[in-house]
């Protein structure tokens, strides 16, 4: 997740890279790999309170990083979004999680492609 706070491009570029990387991996491998949240979240939440709590903590940390990147991007005028950073980060995370799950179910990149297109409208480039 370091690419939210460092790496090539501005804050908007790095946020979009998260979605683009997931899409790229899906297209190359034909499956979602490496994300236990996507693979196990529904089952784990019903079976183990400790694991549910751990997964929630991890998700909260990711959303906090997203919120920070959104706030920093807004402050540096490289992206625009409505509302406050944390609720917007929660929406972006939920969109990512849902798109990953639907891509896994359908074995299609379309949910990830559609999520990426929508994210580009949510975190718009400011008008000059």
CATH top level label: Mainly Alpha
- List how many beta strands DSSP finds: 0
CATH T-level topology: Tetracycline Repressor, domain 2
Helix run count: 5
The radius of gyration over CA amounts to 15 Å
> Can you write the helix and strand succession as a string?
HHHHH
Structural class: mainly alpha
**CATH architectural group:** Orthogonal Bundle
- Uncertain segments are none
Number of domains: 1
Topology, please?
Elements: H1 11-29, H2 36-47, H3 49-75, H4 85-106, H5 110-122
Helix pairs in contact: 1-5, 2-3, 3-4, 4-5
Could you walk me through the main structural features you see in this protein, from its secondary elements to its overall organization?
- The chain is an all-alpha fold and 128 residues long.
- It has a single domain (10-122), classed as Orthogonal Bundle (Tetracycline Repressor, domain 2), CATH 1.10.357.10.
- Helices cover 73% and strands 0% of the residues.
- The protein has 5 helices and no strands.
- It is globular, with a radius of gyration of 15 Å.
- It starts with 10 loop residues before the first helix and ends in a 6-residue tail after the last helix.
What labels would you give this structure?
128 residues; mainly alpha; Tetracycline Repressor, domain 2; 5 helices
Task: Write a concise synopsis of the structure shown.
With 128 residues, the chain is an all-alpha fold.
């Amino acid at each position: 997740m370091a690419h939210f706070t460092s790496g090539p491009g501005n804050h908007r570029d790095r946020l979009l890279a998260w979605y683009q990387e997931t899409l790229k991996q899906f297209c190359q491998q034909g499956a979602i790999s490496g994300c236990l949240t996507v693979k196990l979240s529904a089952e784990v939440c019903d079976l183990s309170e400790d694991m549910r709590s751990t997964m929630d903590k991890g998700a909260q940390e990711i959303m906090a990083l997203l919120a920070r990147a959104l706030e920093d991007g807004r402050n540096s005028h490289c992206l625009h979004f409505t509302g406050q950073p944390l609720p917007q980060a929660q929406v972006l995370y939920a969109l990512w999680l849902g798109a990953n799950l639907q891509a896994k179910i359908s074995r299609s990149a379309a949910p990830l492609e559609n999520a990426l297109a929508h994210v580009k409208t949510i975190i718009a480039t400011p008008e000059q």
